[in-house]
Amino acid sequence: MSAQSRAGGEGAASSSQSVAEKLAERHVPGSTSPKPARLVSLDAYRGFIMVMLAASGFGVAALARLPESAPVWKEIDYARWQELAFHFEHPPWRSRFGWMGVSFWDLIQPAFMFMVGVALPYSYARRVRLGHSTRRIYAHAAWRALVLVLMGVFLQSQHTSTTNWSFVNVLSQIGLGYLFLYPLLHRRVTTQVAVLALLLVAYWGVFASYRPPADYDYAAVNATPDTVFDGRFASWSKNANIGHEFDVWFLNLFPQPNGKFQFNPGGYVTLNFVPSIGTMLLGLMAGQLLRRQRSALFKLAVLVAAGAVCMGLAIVADLYVCPIVKRIWTPSWVLFSGAYVLWMLAGFYLLFDVLPLRWAAFPLAIVGMNSIAMYLMGQLMRPWTVRQIHTHFVGYLETLAGKPIFSPEWLGPVLNPTSAFIVFWLIALWMYRNKFFVRV
Fold this sequence. Notes:
By secondary structure, the chain is mainly α. Helix content is 56%, strand content 1%. Helix 5 crosses helix 10 (273-291) and helix 8 (189-208) packs antiparallel against helix 10.
């Protein structure tokens, strides 16, 4: 992993320019290789997702878990926060509610992975402009995939005494699928759609081929009745599916911190990276669309229409093919979440690349331009940062407020991650102004 100053499509220009000018900067007349305008919407979209991760959802779910007797509920509406908390937690198993309802928190990882695909055509074009050979580009992609996998393992090992060889962290999942995405770059859309369909159908077939035994002990693998399906959907029950069986074999090839691997408490499986290649492939197609010389309205229309097609197919699949479950990334989830991440991209594209609102992207864009750094700060530095804030600032803030607002029974669950995020954002601002960008 390296950190360096980048220009044009990969970084910031001089600090005397506005962020809009920096992000939209085009090539200098007479230069040998044109630099297309930076996609501001991608930086803002990526920044938005990183903000949510680094701030741990601003503690909404943690606050909502306080008992109704907690003193904070005398000041704010308990029922309203319970409703809001739904969007900041992963549901126990099924991911579709009502006609097309979904928890926002379930869309964080798909959006993260989708943007990897969106960025790929831009990253590849930059390396071509720099004169990198195809072999060098693919070698870098392989190195990046390996580093991402190992970073994910590192993050999974924060609270274990030895290395936790688990591959369900989003970074590991991206790394495992990254090299499979590269050969699809610059292929015809019809080819990419065909590969996506083949991938989802094949993965469905693998899962459908496994049926848990009639006497399967669901309780022994942390599966509750609301995470177990009957009938034709039984193959997609929690820790009673082919992905779980694969992990019982595969993960035990590695030394495990707690002895033998038996099950993942949340039901996540390593093989999630296979269908999530489909999520990244949707992003790749979207990225190639946005680089085309077509009108902005045409691109917006295609993004919205593609999302509608994905949603329609997902609902039909959920009814007749396989359930929509984010935790095991079912093929129907690829399409269901794909619709939302496509629509989100369309919204960001409209706001920051079509409408004259690029200036408003700045708070998000500086996070998006250092997304790996922001993600790692959120994962590794939050507890330490919160302790420093309590040591040096909380006493003054609570004196001003006249209440113990940072108390665990007051607004502490919200104020702690929020104040830590403010520190992280200030670090991201410093990195941006000093042209310091971390990349793999």
